[in-house]
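Saturday, quiet lab. Running sequence design on the C-alpha cells for the scaffold JK sent over.
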C-alpha cells in the first residue's frame, strides 16, 4: 500500500495531473531500479466517470544514484495495454482538460459599410491548469515503447470519430538525448497505419505517416525559445484513393477519386494556416478546389476560403437545356 501511494504521488507530480494505481507495484532494487506498476488510471479532469487513459502494465527504470543527488529521473518506459480517450462533448468540454466553449453574440450595430444583423460563433479555449501537456513534456526526453494501444478520438462538436488500434509505438532518444525518433504501426478506422518522425532539439523536424493508401507529411522548424517558441511547418496530404480517405475519417464511402492538400502551419501566439490549397478529382470527371487561410484555427478567427467546383467532366458540359426540367447545375 505504501509503495502504491508513493508511486501514485510521484507519477502524478511528474505528469502534472492525478494518476491512480489500481493493482500492485513491484520493485527490483539496484543502482538502476526496475519498477512494475499494474492497473494505472489517469482520470479525466473534466468529464466525470471517464478515464483519459488506462494502462494494463507500466514498467520503467529509476536511477537511484541520481536520486541520492536530488535528481529524479525515469527512463526506458514500457507500456502495455494502453487505452486513451480524447473526447469533446457537445458543450465543448474535452476529456484532457481544455474547454472549447461556443459563445454566440448577436451583432446589431450599424457601420459605415453595413447595417445588417450578423451572428458570430466564436470558439474559445478557456485556460485550464491541466491540459494534458504535462504528459507530453514527461515523455519528451525518455525512451519509451507502447504495445497494444487503443486511441479513441470522439469529437461530438464535429461528429468525427477516429479509432486508432496501434500494435506498437516507440520513442527513442538518440544523439545523447538531442534527438527523438518516433515509429509506430497499427490501424486507424480499419485502415493500415504507419508513422515515422524525427525531432531534433531546436532543429528542423520531419513526420511521415501512411493511412492505407493516404500519405501525410508534416515537416518544419521550431522558432527559437528566445522568440517565444512555436514552429512553422509544411503539411502535405495525398489521399490516394478518395474512398479510402473517407474510410479513414469515418464517413460513408460514396465518392471515388483522388485528392491533394497543402498548407503551411505557423504556431506562435496563434495557430495559423497559410496558403491552404486542396484539389479533389473524382473518377466521373468532377473537380473541386479550395484555397484560403485561417488566422487562428483554435478560435476559428480570420477564416478566408474560396471554393470552385466543376460538376461535369472537363470539356464535356451537359447539353443546353431546352426546358426547365433539363436545367443542370454545372459548377460554382
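Result came back. Writing it out in full:
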Amino acid at each position: 500500500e505504501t509503495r502504491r501511494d508513493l508511486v501514485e504521488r510521484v507519477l502524478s507530480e511528474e505528469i502534472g495531473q492525478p494518476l491512480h494505481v489500481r493493482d500492485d507495484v513491484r520493485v527490483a532494487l539496484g543502482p538502476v531500479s526496475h519498477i512494475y506498476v499494474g492497473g494505472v488510471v489517469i482520470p479525466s479532469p473534466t468529464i466525470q466517470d471517464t478515464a483519459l487513459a488506462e494502462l494494463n502494465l507500466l514498467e520503467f527504470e529509476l536511477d537511484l544514484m541520481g536520486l541520492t543527488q536530488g535528481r529524479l529521473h525515469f527512463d526506458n518506459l514500457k507500456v502495455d495495454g494502453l487505452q486513451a480517450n480524447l473526447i469533446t462533448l457537445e458543450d465543448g468540454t474535452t476529456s484532457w482538460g481544455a474547454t472549447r466553449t461556443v459563445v454566440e453574440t448577436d451583432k446589431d450595430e450599424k457601420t459605415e459599410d453595413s447595417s445588417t444583423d450578423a451572428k458570430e460563433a466564436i470558439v474559445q479555449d478557456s485556460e485550464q491548469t491541466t491540459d494534458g501537456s504535462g504528459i507530453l513534456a514527461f515523455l519528451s526526453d525518455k525512451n519509451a515503447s507502447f504495445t497494444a494501444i487503443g486511441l479513441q478520438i470522439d469529437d461530438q462538436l464535429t461528429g468525427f470519430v477516429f479509432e486508432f488500434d496501434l500494435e506498437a509505438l516507440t520513442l527513442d532518444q538518440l544523439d545523447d538525448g538531442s534527438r527523438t525518433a518516433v515509429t509506430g504501426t497499427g490501424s486507424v478506422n480499419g485502415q493500415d497505419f504507419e508513422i515515422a518522425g524525427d525531432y531534433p532539439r531546436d532543429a528542423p523536424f520531419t513526420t511521415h505517416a501512411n493511412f492505407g493508401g493516404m500519405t501525410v507529411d508534416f515537416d518544419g522548424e521550431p522558432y527559437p525559445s528566445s522568440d517565444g517558441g512555436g514552429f512553422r511547418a509544411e503539411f502535405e496530404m495525398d489521399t490516394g484513393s478518395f474512398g479510402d480517405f473517407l474510410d479513414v475519417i469515418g464517413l460513408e464511402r460514396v465518392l471515388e477519386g483522388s485528392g491533394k492538400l497543402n498548407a503551411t502551419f505557423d504556431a506562435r501566439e496563434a495557430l495559423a494556416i497559410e496558403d491552404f490549397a486542396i484539389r479533389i478529382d473524382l473518377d466521373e470527371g468532377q473537380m473541386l478546389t479550395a484555397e484560403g487561410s485561417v488566422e487562428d484555427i483554435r478560435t476559428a478567427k480570420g477564416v478566408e476560403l474560396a471554393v470552385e467546383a466543376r460538376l461535369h467532366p472537363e470539356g464535356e458540359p451537359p447539353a443546353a437545356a431546352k426546358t426547365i426540367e433539363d436545367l443542370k447545375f454545372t459548377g460554382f
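Notes for JK: Confidence is low (pLDDT under 50) at residues 99-132. The two ends are 68 Å apart (CA to CA). Ask whether to fix the surface positions before the next round.
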